Every structure is written in C-alpha cells, then in structure tokens.
Amino acid sequence: MKITIDIDCSPTEARAFLGLPDIKPLQDAFMAQMQEKMASGLSAEDLEKMFNLWMKPGLSATGETMGQNMQKNMEAFQSMFWQAAKGKEE
Fold first, then answer.
1. What burial letters (b/e) apply to 33-42, b meaning 16+ CB within 10 Å?
2. Helix, strand, or coil here: 15?
3. d(CA 90, CA 85)
4. pTM exceeds 0.70 for this model
5. Cα separation values, 28 from 12, 16, 38, 57, 61, Å
6. C-alpha span between 66 and 39 (Å, rounded)
C-alpha cells in the first residue's frame, strides 16, 4: 500500500506548522555583518589571489590528480575567505 499526501504551503507556513523558529532576522543581520567585513577587509589583490587559488587547473608539479589539487585549492580558498571575514591578515 502506498499513500501520498501533497501539502501546498510556503516555507514560512511549514516552519510555523512544525514549530520551527523564524531565523530570517538572524540571517539578515549575519549577512549584513559579513558584507561589511568583506567590503572592508578585501582588496582587489586579495580577490585575485582567491580566484587564482580556486581556478588553478590541471595536474600539479607533485603529480596530484586534478581532484586532489582542486581540494587543496578549495581548502586554501576557504581559509582566505574566513580570515578575511574575521578581519585577520596572513
């Protein structure tokens, strides 16, 4: 036996029905704070460094595969992003 129930409601209505909190004000405050930190903490050179780390293609000189190289680049990119978001310099 298979029963299907379709519920037509908005995400806001679903959260209210399930008793989940409305975190929209928290998200808005967090995004405003992140935008402020990113705008004040990153220069054009920093953005170029992050882009180059992210987009470095192909095999590395150490013989790593593209996937391994991309993972290292992603980790370095994330590290630079979080340092910039925290307002710290390397």
1. eeeeeeeeeb
2. helix
3. 12
4. no
5. 16, 19, 15, 35, 43
6. 32
| CA max distance for the chain | 61
Would you say 69 and 56 are in contact if contact means Cβ atoms under 8 Å apart? yes
Helices and strands (H and E) in the chain: how many: 4, 0
CB 68 within 8 A of CB 76: no
End-to-end CA distance of the chain: 61
Which residue is associated with the tokens 């050179």? 45
Locate 1 and state its tokens: 């036996």
What are the pLDDT tens digits along the chain (90 aa)?
Answer: 999 999 899 988 998 888 998 888 888 998 888 788 777 776 667 777 766 666 665 445 555 666 676 777 778 777 877 777 776 554
Instruction: Report the distance separating Cα 84 and Cα 89, nearest Å.
Output: 7
How many Cα neighbours within 13 Å face the side chain of 27? 4
